[in-house]
Amino acid sequence: TGNLLLDPAFVNTASCSSKITYIDGDKGVLRYRGYPIEQLAKHSSYLETAYLVIYGDLPTTEQLEVFEQRIRRTTLIDERMRDLFRCFPRRSHPMPVLAAGIMALSTFSEKSAGTDPEQVENATDRLIAKTPTLAAFSYKNSVGQPTLYPDNSLSYIENFIRMSFGFPTEPYEFNDEVTRALEVLLILHVDHEQNCSTSTVRMVGSSGANLYSSVAAGVNALSGPKHGGANQAVIEMLQGIRDSGMSTQEFVNKVKDQKSNVKLMGFGHRIYKIYDPRAAIIKEHADNILKLHTGRQALLEIAQELEETALNDDYFKERKLYPNVDFYSGLIYEAMGFPVNMFTVLFAIGRLPGWIAHYREQMQTNNKIWRPRQLYTGEQERAYRPIELRP
Ligand code: CMC
């Protein structure tokens, strides 16, 4: 073990080479396959961005049509999967239900539950097509409402919105601004190079596990509050500030008091030491969406004031802590009508193409099993003692 380097939390270690996403954390740059996130958020669709990230380039009209068609005809899930959903307790958290649903999917298709390129291609289509269906089912289960079948005359995003908020007996009225805001949010989440969940997908994939197992592991990694759960924590923090009646300055002072162990949720990032470019785009949409829901503007106002207070404070300036993607995204999801326990599920739908792209890239390059080393700090050799002789 003489030459081992210790790097807890991989702060300085690159685990792989990748051609998918470029981040410059000092300048606030994020590009998928070379395209700036701002341009994709403005002009692209979720499925087009998924294609870009997975296959390496923007599709032609024909390629996009074929891809969309492939996804559209795969949205239904096996009827027996509905029984699976019925097994979960009524109010179960939709995130573990989604993870279980993704694993269950693999058992319904031998054609895609392996690792040869054709199977991976098949699993790619099935995961992109069926994850929103599973997500909407887990949501409907969590609120005790009837589930809806996908309607393939709708766009990908509309389909998901209707399956989430519609009722089988009524036509659904879409609001174009909400549909586009959700699409933009998903585009912004599509990839973020070697974050915890994506590294998990690569780690599991490196053992030769199939795409479903690797993606389900990614969903579970994403469920933690330091990763995908932060947008839920932001809402809870804002509600706490509102309910306690404290000023944003008082809250910031509490965060600065090291003993309090309170963090300003939605602030700070391992890579970005400047404004997260995704947060800047989301902030614009937050204004538009919250205007539609006047009752919910109070939290946005607290968030805006809190951001300003923190950005002007030396504690945050010195540590280069700026709003990250989660600071405003939860507010929009909330205004759209999603309960907080669905926020991470939405993040998972967004991140799915990134996980798939990384899995495939790894399969196509050097898929050596990941096996980090460690520095052992435990006991040296000692002799076994019978239980009656132990202190
Ligand atoms: N509020 C208050 N202080 C903070 C915060 C915060 N949100 N973030 C970092 N700090 C302080 C931290 O205490 C440390 O101070 P000191 O040097 O005095 O000990 C300093 O800033 C450096 O922070 P760090 O913990 O070493 O940074 P990290 O790279 O390990 O952590 C982070 C990054 C995102 C986990 C952290 O900033 C955090 O916990 N933020 C709040 C949770 C959050 O918003 N998470 C979403 C991240 S973006 C989406 C995603 O990747 O899933």
TrEMBL record:
<dbReference type="InterPro" id="IPR016143">
    <property type="entry name" value="Citrate_synth-like_sm_a-sub"/>
</dbReference>
<dbReference type="GO" id="GO:0036440">
    <property type="term" value="F:citrate synthase activity"/>
</dbReference>
<dbReference type="InterPro" id="IPR010953">
    <property type="entry name" value="Citrate_synthase_typ-I"/>
</dbReference>
<dbReference type="InterPro" id="IPR036969">
    <property type="entry name" value="Citrate_synthase_sf"/>
</dbReference>
<comment type="pathway">
    <text>Carbohydrate metabolism; tricarboxylic acid cycle; isocitrate from oxaloacetate: step 1/2.</text>
</comment>
<keyword id="KW-0808">Transferase</keyword>
<dbReference type="Pfam" id="PF00285">
    <property type="entry name" value="Citrate_synt"/>
</dbReference>
<dbReference type="InterPro" id="IPR019810">
    <property type="entry name" value="Citrate_synthase_AS"/>
</dbReference>
<protein>
    <recommendedName>
        <fullName>Citrate synthase</fullName>
    </recommendedName>
</protein>
<feature type="active site">
    <location>
        <position position="269"/>
    </location>
</feature>
<dbReference type="InterPro" id="IPR016142">
    <property type="entry name" value="Citrate_synth-like_lrg_a-sub"/>
</dbReference>
<keyword id="KW-0012">Acyltransferase</keyword>
<dbReference type="GO" id="GO:0006099">
    <property type="term" value="P:tricarboxylic acid cycle"/>
</dbReference>
<keyword id="KW-0816">Tricarboxylic acid cycle</keyword>
<comment type="similarity">
    <text>Belongs to the citrate synthase family.</text>
</comment>
<dbReference type="GO" id="GO:0005737">
    <property type="term" value="C:cytoplasm"/>
</dbReference>
<feature type="active site">
    <location>
        <position position="326"/>
    </location>
</feature>
<dbReference type="InterPro" id="IPR024176">
    <property type="entry name" value="Citrate_synthase_bac-typ"/>
</dbReference>
<dbReference type="InterPro" id="IPR002020">
    <property type="entry name" value="Citrate_synthase"/>
</dbReference>
